[in-house]
Amino acid sequence: MQKVKCIITYDGSGFAGFQIQPKQRTVQGELEKALTKMHKGSYVRVHPSGRTDTGVHAINQTIHFETLYDIPVSNWKRAINTLLPGDLYVKEVKLAHASFHARYDVVEKEYRYYIWNEKEADVFKRNYFYQFPYSLNVEAIQEACKQLEGKHDFTTFSSAKATTKGSKERTLYQVTCEKRGSELELIFRGSGFLYNMVRIIVGVLLDIGQERREPAEIAMLLDSKDRRLVGETVPPQGLYLWDVKYED
User: Fold this and answer.
1) The whole model's pTM is what?
2) One of 11, 53, 70, 248 is an active-site residue; which one?
3) pLDDT (tens digit, 9 = 90+) per residue, 152-176?
4) 130-131 and 106-116: which strand pairing?
5) Topology of 106-246 in CATH?
6) How far is CA 94 from CA 40, 136, 207, 247, in A?
7) If I label 246, which of 13, 94, 98, 122 is the partner at 20 to 30 A Cα–Cα?
8) What CATH topology corresponds to 2-96?
């Protein structure tokens, strides 16, 4: 039995998220359909580094699966891509150690969130940016970003629907915001993320950018551990799983 590790990329616009769901088109569903076909009808289960929601994109998502086939890695890549739809692509294939697990061995993840900060909509960006038509104080957002870095309990910034058990503590190594013309890029690098954590944080940062909140309120929100104190979760289309890192 071999364990195969793949780095994949996908446009989340046409998927009901990563995780397989009945009667829904999902990333896992398309991957497993392709692999099962390659294995002549024998089911092959895919394990991801984490699940992404409906509309969320991935630049570098990591998966693994187990197989009895002994195929050169270059042939794996070509064969799987031949069977995948155009909005899902295998970028790299490697043989992994028998103990490797795409989810449990993650040491760092990076997400990016993109905002189109214009009053006028751009129809070509509607699936890839969150259009936010209000003026923003970017310096205030950048100040708030610094308050989020480090090890904190992020309960306030986790969805009430989250099923995560145990500690809600996570370490964010980098939280930054840069504005280039009408585009805002927010980068989040951390040891791990709670369900909807990035999208809830972005909502709070936009409140700060509109000067409806002060950057100094971040500490209070972290201490409160109360999701009700922050606003709605921003839409998924601006979110990208950018990278996943492992010890090797």
Assistant:
1) 0.95
2) 53
3) 999 999 987 766 677 899 999 999 9
4) parallel
5) Alpha-Beta Plaits (3.30.70)
6) 22, 44, 43, 15
7) 13
8) Alpha-Beta Plaits (3.30.70)
